[in-house]
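Hi V.,

Quick status before I head out on leave. The structure for the redesign project is tokenized and pasted below; the design run finished overnight.
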């Protein structure tokens, strides 16, 4: 079954929920988890220019989180924003003003189809259900593409995964998933320690994404209510990324436990997904022979945030510091480099936003640059969560997870 922006809901209950959220969706964004963080991490040296070329970018999606505007495309010296779009005309106008776009379109599909050679790349910052299909459409038209998370939404979109791999191969274009975990200070440090062998054999990894929310997600509006009753492990990237974006490995098997609720959204499954769980804890086997515990929780108050830890035979990273054989890592640079002139770090999602943009642009403009969250890592990070939810529905049955590579 297709989950598109024009055909999304299953049943009248979902339609009623969407109607009740209409006003909330149109309200200005307030404090939203991930957008209320401050960036206090130090940087290591200045930003070094890597090209004198500009990438002409179209941005799709402003939404309740102003997401299309908070990744600094409009401020980066290697970007010219040429087009903008949002399904809401008022938000489309505002997005264009903020990012200094020359042209606007009433939909992402129209922008992708009509911009032609005036545009080089597209940022898909739309509702989660539309990401995969818009990415495929943009790659087919010959654009480089980056998208918000997740790469695809749930079991009904699993068929998009191999199509995305083939589309990247066929087009020769860059696809990047803007998974914020990848450029959080924690993950940068762990990735560099891992690559230097500082963990030895990585035996165990933990990732946590706690985001307590009303079951109807009134705190964050969503297009046609796609967040209502969302299976936690359908949105797994902020936890799984503490393994996949550190090691660029993958998960091989999963057993997952879900926690139910008395709220009708979950107990009576009055949501588009038939989902009974407000929180899910997944136990994975990893491609390097270790294990991982990855938690996504909507229904647990008192704490919110994204956190990861790595434990290996030579040392571990926890509480934002490494404990182990320091001789291995003494010459490593474990903090981020500076940002381009004019690019301010707003601190969102641990200050990761502008670094994802910079990495995407380098992948386009610098031959041989290794993109951190390429299509394979994007799908290995996302699809494993889908299988985790399927496992939870089967009472924790262990399931094999498909592996993606390019």
């Amino acid at each position: 079954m297709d989950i598109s922006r024009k055909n999304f809901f299953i049943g009248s209950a979902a339609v009623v929920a969407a109607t009740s959220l209409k006003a909330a969706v149109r309200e200005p964004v307030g404090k939203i988890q991930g957008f209320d963080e401050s960036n206090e991490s130090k940087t290591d040296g200045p930003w070094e220019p890597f090209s004198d070329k500009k990438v002409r970018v179209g941005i799709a999606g402003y939404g309740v989180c102003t997401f299309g505007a908070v990744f600094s495309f409009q401020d980066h010296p290697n970007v010219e924003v040429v087009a903008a779009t949002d399904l809401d005309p008022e938000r489309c106008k505002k997005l264009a003003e903020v990012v200094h776009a020359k042209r606007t379109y009433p939909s992402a599909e129209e922008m992708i189809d009509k911009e032609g050679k005036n545009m080089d790349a597209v940022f898909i910052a739309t509702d989660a259900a539309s990401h995969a299909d818009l990415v495929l459409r943009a790659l087919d038209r010959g654009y480089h593409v980056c998208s918000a998370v997740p790469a695809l939404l749930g079991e009904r979109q699993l068929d998009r995964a191999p199509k995305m791999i083939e589309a990247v191969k066929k087009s020769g274009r860059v696809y990047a998933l803007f998974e914020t975990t990848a450029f959080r200070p924690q993950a940068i440090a762990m990735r560099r320690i891992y690559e230097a062998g500082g963990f030895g054999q990585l035996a165990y990894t933990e990732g946590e994404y706690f985001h307590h929310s009303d079951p109807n997600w009134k705190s964050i509006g969503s297009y046609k209510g796609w967040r209502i009753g969302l299976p936690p492990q359908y949105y797994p990237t902020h936890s799984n990324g503490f393994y996949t974006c550190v090691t660029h490995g993958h998960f091989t098997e999963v057993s997952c436990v879900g926690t139910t609720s008395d709220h009708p959204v979950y107990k009576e499954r009055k949501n588009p997904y038939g989902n009974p769980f407000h929180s899910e804890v997944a136990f994975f086997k990893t491609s390097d022979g270790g294990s991982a515990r990855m938690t996504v929780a909507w229904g647990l108050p008192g704490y919110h945030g994204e956190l990861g830890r790595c434990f290996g035979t030579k040392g571990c990273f926890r509480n934002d510091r490494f404990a182990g054989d320091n001789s291995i890592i003494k010459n490593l640079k474990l903090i981020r480099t500076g940002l381009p002139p004019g690019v301010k770090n707003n601190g969102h999602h641990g200050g990761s936003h502008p670094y994802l943009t910079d990495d995407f642009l380098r992948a386009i403009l610098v031959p041989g640059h290794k993109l951190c969250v390429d299509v394979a890592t994007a799908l290995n990070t996302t699809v494993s969560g889908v299988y985790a939810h399927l496992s939870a529905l089967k009472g924790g049955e262990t399931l094999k997870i498909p592996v993606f590579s390019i």
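Above is the designed sequence. Residues 12-180 form a domain with the Rossmann fold fold (CATH 3.40.50.720).

G. will cover questions while I'm gone.

Best,
W.
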